[in-house]
Amino acid sequence: MSFASVFTRAQLGVESPEVRVEVHLSGGLPSLSLVGMPEAAVRESKDRVRSALLTCDYEFPSKRITINLAPADLPKDGGRFDLAIALGILAASGQIPAVALDHHEFLGELALNGELRPISGALPSAVQCGQAQRTLVLSDGNAGEVALTHTGRALTARSLTEVVNYLLGKGALTDVLPTPGGSGGLLDVPDLADVRGQPQARRALEIAAAGQHNLLFIGPPGTGKTMLASRLPGILPPMNEEDALVSASVYSISTSGEGWLERWRRRPFRAPHHTASGVALVGGGSNPRPGEISLAHAGVLFLDELPEYSRKVLDVLREPLESGRIVISRAQRSVTFPARFQLVAAMNPCPCGYFGDPSGRCRCNEEQVRRYQGQASGPLLDRIDLHVEVPAIPAALLHQSAPGESSAAVQQRVLVARQRQLHRQGCCNAELGGNERDRVCQLAEADSVWFLAAVEKLNLSARGYHRVLKLARTIADLDGAEQIGRPHLLEAVGYRSLDRFIRASET
Q1: Could you tell me whether strands 64-70 and 18-26 are parallel, antiparallel, or unpaired per DSSP bridges?
Q2: Which DSSP helix (H) or strand (E) runs through 417?
Q3: pLDDT tens-digit profile of 228-252?
Q4: Could you give phi then psi for residue 99, rounded to 5 degrees?
Q5: Sign, CA torsion 77/82/87/93
Q6: Residue 1: which of 22, 15, 16, 18 has the closest Cα?
Q7: Number of C-alpha atoms within 13 angstroms, CB side, residue 489?
Q8: What are the tens digits of pLDDT across the range 144-159?
Q9: Rounded Cα gap, residues 7 and 415, in angstroms
């Protein structure tokens, strides 16, 4: 037989499209031609494959070899196609039966001695291979992440020889047994009980967790803004299977996902430095990679010292905050990464941090304060539902304060409120839109009149109006109320009262 085809998978963002490796042998001078938009690492595979076959005592055909990676218009990169190419050559030259390749997909980079090396992005490939109802064969170095998916069958091998013996019926490969991997519990997660005082900030954190709302802490240095933000993942509901797999898939293809297997099913908490570029935040590069907002998918993105970020960098967050995804377009491809994260930001009220302090130690002039506060644009602040002041606590009061409620106790209330939302509309309150929002957030006549007057006084945009309404719905859910009442509206509006204070910096 002079023709064979083998199934494998490429990597395109968190997607793993199917690729068919077609191998044809013909007469003529010995050569190897590789077509189908292969990038540099793929073109170099012919040398790795040739050395691996010869080292393992298989024949490398002295013919004209043409290898096509179909579809031809899909860019291919990396060493993930090595194993499929080697098996295609062996099948086309009759060294293994082509029928043995049916119902299988093969992934793995080959060393020159025939050893099988792990690849990046094995998890999304395993998920989509299972959906195609084929058996995946790959390196044993990828067994840990492939075990996270419960769809399909996966086999691991240490070398090309083991795979060939399996296809010839002379040996068996190791089955990957599905495992839950890690834990989504509160183990090693900072506990909210460590936070003393700050009742309003703790309340805001609970509301943000219950309705998946974005949150901004404003206060002088050392008042616990970062401490509060780091406790948010511990009071969020545990991740479901779909969110956990998508989040794990992002880390699987990322170059900065060290140790992510141990954090399986735990909400991500990403805190990039304020010197981070727009590409570092949203992703990019010639071969697009996920940024911080995608690594924070289904978790928390914490931006400390918000005004210190470049305004252009902050504004790239506006679209992902609305859509829950980021599209990165390049000349040859367009890649979509998930980016449904919860934004928590913190800022000082002025450059020195002590504006409004009773001690009077702030020496910033009015123009410096306005410029500092105006670094975060109005459209970005409009997408943040809660603006919360975190005041300084006197040392004596801090010493006398008893430990606060634990994360576990707060999480139980959050879970009850989330269940109400999912049962009522199938999503969190922060995600409500259109007619569904109008139905869920109906107000009594008198409350509606009062609320419209409050919105006009605060000069809120249409987006701000709807976000306050959804925030009030979350507060009502935490209270177990069927309808939004005046107390819920009062509290929700109170969390937006800083709009006037911050927006004044832009005028």
Answers
A1: antiparallel
A2: helix 407-425
A3: 999 999 999 999 889 999 999 999 9
A4: -65, -25
A5: positive
A6: 22
A7: 21
A8: 999 998 888 999 999 9
A9: 43
